[in-house]
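quick q for whoever's on today - can somebody do inverse folding on this one?? i tried earlier but teh output was garbage lol. tokens:
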């Protein structure tokens, strides 16, 4: 009779040990599975973070590029506002998107640009609008062989400015007119171009008394190859 309680005690202890071992094994299995899942989730988070990081870097680079563009445009606008041009001139800012024989800008018919309009940088004439697309335009610079602009010197002499071989030639100046090296040359106001827009200065006189007209070489006041922003006179 005294052995039964001891057997029961052994049974209870054995059962508890089995339960404890089972719980331990089950807990270990659950922990292993949880760690596996956690690892998979972490890897996924890391992958997503890398993708997000790449996306953010791309957005940051695009934002930096836009900031640089805005700074350049603001600088161009400030210089243009300081330029001594007639206040009644309407000016449309444009960005240079191509530069070879011709300039190409990012403004066109949609912005009201018309063929023949003057294109300036600060107070200096760059050229004239040659062709107009919906959102872009082709600009003929003054040094182009096909460019001919009516001009006036600082002393009031009227002539014709012709392009060619990447230089500017002042022609059609009567021999009775006075030309001097260093004289400013600007638009005369004839045709569709506003008057008084600077072009360059006389740096060489070509004197031939037998000719009806005088000629001179003009040094442009701007380097067309360095232009990034211009303004269309509207």
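ok took a stab at it. sequence:
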């Amino acid at each position: 009779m005294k052995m039964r309680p001891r057997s029961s005690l052994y049974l209870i202890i054995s059962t508890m040990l089995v339960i404890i071992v089972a719980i331990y094994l089950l807990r270990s299995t659950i922990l292993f599975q949880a760690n596996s899942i956690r690892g998979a989730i972490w890897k996924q988070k890391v992958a997503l973070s890398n993708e997000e990081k790449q996306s953010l870097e791309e957005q940051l680079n695009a934002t930096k590029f836009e900031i640089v563009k805005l700074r350049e445009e603001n600088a161009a606008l400030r210089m243009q506002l300081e330029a001594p041009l007639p206040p009644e001139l309407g000016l449309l800012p444009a960005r240079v998107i191509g530069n070879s024989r011709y300039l190409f800008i990012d403004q066109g018919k949609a912005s009201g640009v018309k063929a023949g309009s003057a294109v300036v940088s600060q107070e200096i004439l760059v050229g004239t609008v040659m062709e107009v697309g919906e959102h872009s335009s082709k600009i003929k610079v003054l040094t182009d062989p096909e460019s001919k602009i009516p001009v006036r010197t600082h002393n009031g002499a009227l002539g014709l400015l012709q392009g060619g071989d990447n230089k500017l030639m002042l022609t059609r100046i009567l021999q009775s007119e006075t030309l001097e090296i260093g004289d400013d040359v600007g638009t005369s106001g004839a045709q569709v171009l506003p008057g008084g827009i600077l072009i360059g200065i006389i740096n060489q006189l070509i004197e031939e008394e037998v000719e009806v007209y005088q000629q001179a070489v003009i040094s442009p006041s701007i380097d067309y190859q360095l232009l990034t922003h211009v303004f269309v006179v509207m």
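fwiw The longest helix spans residues 3-82. also The chain is about 35% helix and 35% strand. so keep that in mind when u check it
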